[in-house]
Amino acid sequence: MKKMTEKTIQDALAGESQAYAKYLIFADVAREEGYPNVAKLFEAIAYAERIHIRNHMEALGGLTNTAEHIKKALGGENFEVEEMYDAFMAVANHQEEKAAVKTHRLAFEAEKSHAEAFEKALSSVESSKDISTEEVYICPTCGYSSESSPPERCPVCKVKGEKFLKF
Ligand SMILES: [Fe+2]
Ligand SMILES: [Fe+2]
Question: Which pLDDT score is estimated for 151?
Fold first, then answer.
């Protein structure tokens, strides 16, 4: 694909991906505010954006197989842990922006658990085996992930394990 054209799809993919994530969060807020039908509308349109995202990914040749996808995911998580959040926290600290330091730090700590989970999944899938973990638990405050069972308290933000969401 020509570079200029490729860039148009990458830009579209980035925009649609942001819209998808935002709509799902807007749906949560709508539900909290007592608008369940608006929440459904956000979720439905989010799903539509997800279709565009998949189409854009396919056009870019970005979908291959699960082992390759886990490697990509792992690369992203490791980048966030090893470079991105570290640098972002330094900037936020330097500028004494407390809210920014907090959100970067929570993500930084939680991303490590994602990288570990993908690491394990990769070695399984590379020998053509599904992972034995049937349930994954996610902290609703910081996004820390825990396989098989939730911890008593989140090691990152101390939320009680019973609040974790099961997937
Ligand atoms: Fe992550
Ligand atoms: Fe947490």
Answer: 96
